[in-house]
Specification:
about 270 residues; mainly beta; eleven-stranded mixed sheet; 3 helices; 18 strands
């Protein structure tokens, strides 16, 4: 059985050289498809069919020898492809549970034989990297986590996007298969890596261990700081034989001890 990985390339205006080494993006949220690469805000949701799966749009096909045809269906965010029967009649629902996190399906049509369908990659633990000279953003690589099926066959997928600012959807995906690469398929599409959206804050903040840290899905810093301050400890002082909340006091246990001693109070420097 052939085992392939998948590469999706969004062909654009800038063509990086083969010697460029991908660098991991600063941030990427696999649930939204939004991140930051080389200081540039990216929005890959539409490119990865995160806005909704369509059998007519979210695919790339090619003809093989001996009359075979091969099609890749994909939905790379947020929760993967729909149930198998909505992808292709050959895709088993058990292999593709609805919103089960499978990012890519490989469907092979054979002449005079049944159609084959395999899970090819998972959304979880997606790693995004970029290529580009200087402070430019030429290519974005979306590497999905490999998927191992019930027979122990492992498949993986990579979506390689070469960015073309201003190129709007719908996108048309084509593939040259593994003609150029022996270990994965190459699919070409022209796309805008930023999603064509207006600039937005790329980073929020969330409270962690009484400190505000950066988070794609967080709140503005001011809101985080309002709820993320270390709580002021409550102290107690003894008044008239009773423990009452008061500044510069001690713990409740210490206060009770003090109140048993007439005329004595405890305070903390």
């Amino acid at each position: 059985m052939r085992v392939y990985s998948l590469v999706v390339i969004a062909a654009g205006l800038i063509h990086p050289t083969a010697t460029q080494v991908p660098r991991v993006c600063e941030r990427y949220d696999e649930q939204s498809g939004v991140g930051v690469c080389n200081g540039v805000r990216i929005n890959l949701s539409t490119i990865l069919c995160g806005d909704g799966f369509s059998k007519d749009l979210c695919k790339a096909s090619r003809k093989l020898q001996f009359g075979e045809a091969e099609t890749f269906y994909f939905k790379g965010t947020p929760s993967g492809l729909p149930i198998g029967s909505q992808i292709d009649a050959a895709c088993v629902n058990g292999d593709f549970p609805s919103n089960g996190g499978v990012a890519v399906a490989q469907v092979i049509s054979q002449v005079g034989s049944s159609v084959l369908c395999y899970p090819a990659a998972d959304v979880k633990d997606t790693i995004v990297s970029f290529e580009g000279p200087g402070d430019t953003l030429a290519v974005v690589n979306v590497a999905f986590h490999s998927h191992t099926d019930g027979a122990g066959i492992e498949r993986s997928a990579l979506i390689r996007i070469q960015c073309n600012p201003g190129k709007a959807p719908p996108y048309t995906y084509t593939t040259t298969g593994d003609d150029h690469h022996s270990q994965y398929y190459e699919i070409n599409v022209e796309a805008d890596c930023t999603g064509g959206s207006e600039p937005q804050p790329t980073t929020g903040f969330r409270c962690w261990n009484n400190a505000c840290i950066e988070s794609i899905s967080g709140s503005p810093r001011s809101e985080c700081e309002a709820v993320c301050q270390e709580p002021i400890p409550v102290t107690y002082v003894c008044k008239g034989g009773n423990c009452e909340v008061g500044a510069n006091g001690g713990t409740l246990a210490d206060c009770k001890k003090v109140c048993r001693m007439e005329g004595v109070n405890i305070s903390v420097e």
